[in-house]
Model the fold of this input.
Amino acid sequence: MSAQKTTWQDWVAVTALGVGSFTIVTTELAPIGLLSNIGSSLGTSTSQTGLIVTLYAWIAVAAALFSAVVLSRMPRRPLLVCLMLILALSSGVAAMAETFPALMGARVIGALAHGAFWAMIGTIGAQIVPPHRVGLATSIIFGGVSAASVLGVPLANLLGSLNGWRAAFTAVAVLSFGVAVVCFATLPKLPGNEGFGAAAMGRVLSNQRFMCIFAATALVVTSHFMAFTYIEPYLVRQSEITPSVIAYLLLAFGGAGLAANVVTASLIDRWLKSVLMVALCLASAALWLLSMLSDVMGLWGTVLMLIIWGGGIGAVLVGFQTWILKEAGDDALPASAIYVAIFNAAIGLGAMLGAIVLSTSGLNEIYLFAAVATALGTATIALMSGPTVATSQAE
Done:
């Protein structure tokens, strides 16, 4: 049950979890812009090196579901601290890897901890803060996810381009260790949840409202990473954009996502569906315009579309998770675990579909398909009534 009063230490813990979510998603996605450097260093092709992203995402899917069932009864503080230390060790070993199998092995260990950490933090905010502050806490915790999706990747890539790909992994290892220390010092003693099995999973999967949210999540996250994975080659192709400004464009994209998190944090508890609808419409429109007007948009038009897209997706990623928690009640852990599994599966699927579309059509078509998929996600949410308070929270 959520605490009715919170202290500054509780909010520091919530913030640390937000930094932790930033760290784990940055760990997952950072290699996207470093594949060529890693491949040339370890003597592997770019396509083979890409397995360290794709395989990581799919292993995290299994880890999220497995941990939610097997680890659910464990007290949260020691569990989360241990998982962050494993992530730190994984990134540290990856930074020192001299062969591709060694790098892959380090990534596999990290993916296991990644899935478990993400599945657990989905319900932590509701355990620390009172019900009317769950949206704000979730915005902070999962704001790290959207920040990493749009900001952590270009920062890691910039660091890697300046000091080598190993420096990026080393930085993530240090950050993971720091999160572990802060969580150990500030997280309150939170008990685990009762374990659940097939019956709990069945309840969630048979709930039509959950299935609509899961479907919208799959569509939107797949489309986002279909487009975002290829944002750099898309920008390189623009005649008015030089390679030296691409990093700044990506930072503007990420900054818009962070700003959206700040703005929506104060709105999402009262107007969750409205926030989601506006954000989804903006993201879909921006993707469509990037597809249709890429040759005539120019530098500032592209910047504007990146800001709209980044802000929209930043609000959406927090909104979906908040909606799940508001609906779930006693089934928060299995619902969150399924959401995390779908999210990570969609990352891998989006990158794969983007590669297929690129090889058969082109970059513009990637953004067109992404816009259509996002619009379908918007339609799915539009057909639903607003979030309802779960029975267990209302009692």
